[in-house]
Amino acid sequence: MAGFGWRVGSKVQRWGRSCLRGFSSHAIPSQLENVGFIGLGNMGSHMARNLITAGYKVTVHDINENSMKKFSDDGIPTKQSPLEVSESSDVVITMLPSSSHVLEVYNGTNGLLGAGSRLGPWLYIDSSTVDPQTSRKISAAISRCHLKENKGYAENPMILDAPVSGGVPAAEAGKLTFMVGGLEEAYLAAKPLLLSMGKRAIYCGGAGNGSASFVNSASSLIILDVQMIPTHS
């Protein structure tokens, strides 16, 4: 089976199936350069700014105009809808409060999939804390779509569910941990982008597995906390 990868000197490091081709190991690959970021809350605002600091060309959107103004005041492009963000992006990252917000941003009026089944961005990354079923529902919707243009390095649009741990301090410091579900080739291609916002990215398997791993980790911590509560007889 043909592989894909990045070129180092005259050698090609093979990753897997031939869905992506030609990523460079130096600087920012052009395939990742234009990033749309949706959700500028306590976590998302820091994540977006870390991408900007790393040299990515970032366009942002949030339903809160004041949140967007903080970016526009710094000369960062803002858009009035998720659909508008997608029109100027190669990659779109969402960082939203809940499953219902994610479904609305993807499927709602002027949502990321609002232009029909032919999409501009080749990669979507949802870092929201949602249930695995929501992640898989969005992944299924993306899998039914096609790219508006032949990108040369991607045959079809892809999506990763990539919830984070570490909280606001880690988001600000760029030390988040990403738990990632989706196609492994998409994970490998997106890893430089993720590591511009975090210290570690862990591949957890297929669609929804990143969200499932996050939920399981959170549940384990809750159980541990309960077990540590002192009992009194």
Automatic annotation (TrEMBL):
- What region holds the 6-phosphogluconate dehydrogenase NADP-binding domain? 34-205
Residues crossing the lipid bilayer are none
Which SUPFAM superfamilies does UniProt cross-reference here?
Answer: NAD(P)-binding Rossmann-fold domains
EC number assigned by the record: 1.1.1.31
The catalysed reaction is: 3-hydroxy-2-methylpropanoate + NAD(+) = 2-methyl-3-oxopropanoate + NADH + H(+)
Keywords in alphabetical order: Branched-chain amino acid catabolism, NAD, Oxidoreductase
**Known pathway:** Amino-acid degradation; L-valine degradation
Entry-linked PROSITE patterns = 3_HYDROXYISOBUT_DH
Record GO terms (molecular function):
3-hydroxyisobutyrate dehydrogenase activity; NADP binding
GO BP, sorted A to Z: branched-chain amino acid catabolic process
Q: Which Pfam families match?
A: NAD_binding_2 (PF03446)
InterPro entries associated with the record: 3-OH-isobutyrate_DH-rel_CS, 6PGDH_NADP-bd, NAD(P)-bd_dom_sf
Family, according to the entry, reads as follows:
Belongs to the HIBADH-related family. 3-hydroxyisobutyrate dehydrogenase subfamily.
Classification via PANTHER family: 3-HYDROXYISOBUTYRATE DEHYDROGENASE, MITOCHONDRIAL, 3-HYDROXYISOBUTYRATE DEHYDROGENASE-RELATED
**The name this protein goes by in its record:** 3-hydroxyisobutyrate dehydrogenase
Name of encoding gene: LOC101764065
